[in-house]
Design a protein that fits this description.
397 residues, alpha+beta, Rhopdopsin 7-helix transmembrane proteins, 2 domains, 5-stranded antiparallel β-sheet, 15 helices, elongated
Length: 397
């Protein structure tokens, strides 16, 4: 049938029907929220607390893949998504299918993979427990496995690959719709499993931390946002199951729609806990009005890793300059704890005995804990007279 004859058989009202604007608007709104949250996370980690780590790098990779997914949505909606499949010209439909292929590779496989690895690496910061680490590294390995599996599936769906969107390619061999559906369900099931694991695993650990209850509830509530991603994954699975019998999938592209929302919600839920140093005062999540104190709890871990190790343990004090926000270690030397100077932090007194420092804190009427403001006299510091407010943290490795 020629294109002219085909055009005369299409109802003009049916051809004018389109959901493209509605779908694209919702996608853009949620993606904008996810993108802004990720940008604020990068600012907080890289500029405010200067603790940009591997988990942040993987989050940036996930966001970049998400940008490619948004670009694919724009192309898809321009070339057929939201319209009835029998009203889409063949040339536009080919562009839609090509854009969907790249969306599947970059967003459905790699973006989710990078996101889950980022979440796991972030959770590794919470505890040094052996079993906790083993579980998280197992989940990272599992995530890498099904991400690579999804990538290979999309590459081998049709041979040659261009046959997925170009009907002019001869000799194309593709999976059946049922097999493609099964591959999609496997990928969704893996995403749901990891979402549930990452949302549930840290809850007992966070609740056991010596933090204000308000902070613990905030972190648990944010991490529980992963359950919204689980709900969206279930919705996506329902429409993937219906894919085999779908005859007008472009008019309501629910499966890719819920998949994109699942990614956006996952990015927001993963980035929100890292914003506490920036939003702590606004949301009353800080234990004090000292912004540096709440902002540098990530960097304490890095300073801890530099403490001297004796056998299987290392003990010492970390003292934080509330002016610069940096940590400096107090290394054990003989019977005394001596300040190890780092950078411009030359204000620390030398030969500070561990027990004497603890007694000074207790004698000032303050609580002796890892979260106490100590006003300690400094001696033997050339050119300095008086006292300097510091934060002293007892740490063990």
């Amino acid at each position: 049938m020629s294109s002219t004859t085909r055009a005369t058989l299409i109802d003009p009202e049916r051809a004018a029907e389109s959901n493209a604007t509605a779908f694209l608007t919702v996608i853009c709104v949620f993606w904008s929220l996810a993108f802004v949250t990720a940008c604020v996370r990068v600012y907080t980690r890289a500029i405010l607390v200067r603790s940009f780590g591997k988990d942040d790098t993987f989050m940036v990779l996930a966001v970049l893949c998400g940008v490619a997914g948004l670009a694919a949505w724009i192309v898809e909606c321009k070339n057929g998504f939201g319209r009835h499949i029998d009203t889409i010209p063949r040339s536009e439909f080919a562009k839609l299918m090509e854009a969907q292929f790249y969306q599947n590779v970059l967003e459905t496989s790699f973006a989710f993979g990078f996101l889950k690895v980022s979440i796991a690496l972030s959770l590794l910061r919470l505890s040094k427990g052996k079993w906790y680490h083993r579980i998280l590294w197992t989940l990272i390995g599992f995530t890498c496995f099904y991400t690579i599996f999804a990538f290979i599936t999309f590459l081998t769906y049709c041979k040659p690959i261009a046959g997925q969107w170009n009907p002019a390619v001869r000799g194309t061999k593709c999976y059946s719709r049922a097999m493609y559906r099964n591959f999609g369900l496997f990928n969704v099931a893996c995403n749901i499993l990891t979402d549930v694991s990452f949302a549930t695993l840290p809850i007992p650990l966070i609740w056991s931390l010596q933090l204000h209850r308000r902070i613990r509830l905030y972190l648990i509530a944010i991490l529980s946002g992963g359950y919204f991603a689980v709900a969206l994954g279930i919705a996506k699975a329902i429409f993937i199951i219906a894919y085999v019998h779908e005859t007008d999938g472009t008019f309501f592209p629910w499966a890719p729609f819920f998949g994109s929302l699942q990614l956006d919600i996952g990015i927001i839920a993963a980035c929100a806990p890292t914003l506490r140093p920036l939003l702590g005062r606004v949301l009353r999540l800080s234990t004090t009005f000292d912004p540096y104190r709440g902002a540098n709890y990530y960097r304490a871990g890095k300073a801890l890793n530099r403490l001297p190790v004796t056998g299987n343990s290392a003990r010492g004090y970390l003292r934080q300059n509330t002016g610069s926000g940096a940590f400096v270690e107090l290394a054990k030397g003989g019977k005394h704890w001596t300040a190890a100077h780092r950078g411009d932090l030359t204000f620390l007194a030398t030969a500070v005995h561990a027990e004497h420092a603890t007694n000074q804190v207790q004698g000032s009427g303050e609580k002796s804990s890892s979260d106490v403001d100590a006003v300690l006299p400094l001696t033997d510091t050339p050119g300095f007279k008086g006292i300097l407010k510091t934060i002293e943290v007892r740490v063990e490795k």
